[in-house]
């Protein structure tokens, strides 16, 4: 079916939760004006379709065991870094065994891998970090770097991080994603 634009309100329509009043004035008295009055100045800007999604906005549509599938059909293998609607393959070391068990790649993350954040304009307000199947901490150096450039960080598993990123990006927020494949 064809997409039709939403109908617009005209100046002749008056929707209000206020009681009807007997006056020749086009505005209700201040005592009868309620917050849902459609003529209120806060609403004079018009209507916005909150369900309209920018088709050019990059989103994660599928989490693969070794990568990600994006809504543009592109498959990214390995860690994913999306900044300002641009996906990057992040080059970081794979999980490594140690005497304490397995060292997670995010715990060895070198801040040099994130230097693109120094040059992008506008700088994201939030970096959502997906640590694979579980939540993982960033390396101390990476945390220090992100704090020094004023970036907030939210840690989650990759599934939740991708979902959070998709939602915030669709809302128009300037958010970045750094995610490790779940496998």
Automatic annotation (TrEMBL):
Organism: Coemansia brasiliensis
Protein's name according to its UniProt entry: NADH dehydrogenase [ubiquinone] 1 alpha subcomplex assembly factor 3
Pfam families, alphabetized: DUF498
GO-annotated cellular components: mitochondrial inner membrane
GO annotation terms (biological process): mitochondrial respiratory chain complex I assembly
InterPro entries reported for this sequence: MTH938-like_sf, NDUFAF3/AAMDC
Domain of life: Eukaryota
Gene3D superfamilies hit by this protein: MTH938-like (3.40.1230.10)
């Amino acid at each position: 079916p064809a997409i039709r634009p939403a109908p617009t309100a005209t100046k002749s329509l008056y929707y209000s939760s206020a009681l009807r009043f007997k006056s020749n004035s086009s505005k209700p008295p201040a005592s009868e004006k309620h917050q849902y009055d459609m003529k209120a100045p806060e609403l004079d800007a018009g209507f916005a379709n909150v369900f309209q999604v920018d088709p050019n906005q990059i989103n994660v549509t599928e989490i693969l065991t070794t990568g990600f599938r994006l809504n543009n059909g592109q498959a990214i293998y390995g860690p994913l870094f999306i900044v300002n609607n641009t996906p990057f393959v992040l080059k970081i070391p794979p999980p490594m065994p140690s005497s304490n068990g397995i060292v997670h790649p995010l715990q060895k993350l070198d801040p040099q891998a994130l230097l693109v954040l120094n040059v992008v304009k506008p700088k994201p307000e939030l970096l959502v970090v997906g640590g694979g199947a579980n939540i993982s901490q960033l390396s101390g150096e990476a945390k220090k770097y992100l704090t020094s450039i004023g970036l907030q960080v939210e840690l989650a598993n990759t599934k939740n991080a991708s979902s959070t990123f998709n939602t915030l990006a669709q809302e128009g927020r300037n958010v970045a994603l750094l995610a490790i494949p779940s496998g």
